[in-house]
Amino acid sequence: MSDDSEPWYRTAVFYEVAVHSYADSNGDGIGDLQGLTERLAYLEWLGITAIWILPIFPSPMRDGGYDVSDYLGIRPEFGDFDDFRTLIEQAHRRGIRVITDFIVNHTSNQHPWFQEARLPGSRKRDWYVWTDDPSTYSEARVIFVDTHTSNWAWDEVAGQYYWHRFFDHQPDLNYDNPAVRDAIADAMRFWLDMGLDGLRLDAVPYLFEREGTNCENLPETHAYLKEIRSMIDDEYPGVVLLAEANQRPEDLLAYFGDGDECHMAFNFPIMPLLFLAVASDDATVVAKELAATPDIPRGCQWSVFLRNHDELTLEMVTSTQRAALYDAYAPDPAMRKNVGIRRRLAPLLNGDRRKIELLHAVLLSLPGSPVMYYGDEIGMGDDIVLPDRDGVRTPMQWNPTPSAGWSDADPTHFYLPVVSDDAYGPNRVNVHDERADEHSLLSAVRNLIAMRPPAFGTAAFKVLNPGDPRVLAIARGEFTVAANFSSAPLTVRCGTDSYVAGNGTIKGNSVSLPPYGWLWMGPA
Ligand code: BGC
User: Fold this and answer.
1) Which CATH class is domain 8-105+178-451?
2) Which of 6, 54, 503, 524 is spaced 20 to 30 Å from 153 by Cα?
3) Candidates 52, 63, 68: which one to mutate for ligand 1, based on the most atoms within 8 Å of Cβ?
4) Is the CB of 64 within 6 Å of ligand 1?
């Protein structure tokens, strides 16, 4: 399935994995790198071609590891550098690339840089962003609205306020300081030297602050990204930079630069609209958004996704759309987090196989490279009782035992509990049983990945008009995709008379789709 004329990430299928929840090799109740390495055979079988690993840096773990206390280390519970190199080697041997999160915007307040910066007269003071006047940068929005009302926090030792776009235990680095820019670039080199294939640049829009702006997407941020990209091109060709920028389309597009910033960017705007379309029996919102999706520079690629380790963000939709999404998917206030919904794919869709498969089929055929979230391939559930976003980060369910086969530790020592409810517990949802069942969700997802034409990653796209708002129809090069976002069986005109995959039927150019049915058509 590889096309040598294309960069690897344009035909890749990514899989996002939280090391701490995937597989525990040493029985301490925390997943680790060796555990993940042992599961590479499963990932190869599933057919994914790249993994994205959530942060593995030493961390107080008050924000899932996004609170870094050392850029040049590995959290001891996860293993050591040998384990990491082994993971990369073994993954490469199976044709799987490895990218990791890299947290550019902030550190933990436990990072020695911050501890030093707080001290009176410290030479590191300007490694972070300080003020005596907390009305500075007042136009910047607060992102974690459930827990914070300001982006400034008072530091007793420093006698000043420090800037933080996320939790107040995560001070933002000061990118106006060249020493910071260099230290971060060097930390990237440190990891890339181990053979990594890419970095997900976490929270990348917020690197610089300027009065009178919303402190997002500033020209200075783009200038720094160009520097990083030029370092990658010179020193690490083939490595991919993936921008996490939850922004409106026009601002998001800027992260590709002129093909001289990030190679990839998550397509945040399209994601919630897929859920809105399913909830409202109307694919128009998706069709419109796609039609408005601009061309991106050569060699660049969208990263498309349904769910991830965060809340399903609703920051970038209109207030009417947001209300409709909350109504449909988060009836219980405990399901809401910040401006979003902290639930997994299967429970969001009421466990409806037709909808889960439809969204997978659409995900795999949208322009871009799909990123699947661990556990969604088997239809894992969530646990909204757990704090913050932990409810969507519970242990991977490998087998039907109560501990789900992910760890031999006493369950009371599990870092996070296994989902235990009737519908989504391991006795109902697990890799072992689903692998043995050719009609399972896992088998269906695996087939989809196997059937996915590489052209879905690389071909130009065009939104078609199938004559029914309930159907999304797109041309992808020689292929046509038709997806029925409604509960009614429908017949529309958009066929190509040849079948690749799906559960509809084709007669001439007339296509019949069952409720939530879909078709991939084209040169089989
Ligand atoms: C990550 C979140 C994290 C936040 C702050 C985000 O972009 O995806 O999980 O909480 O950055 O670090």
Assistant:
1) alpha beta
2) 54
3) 63
4) yes
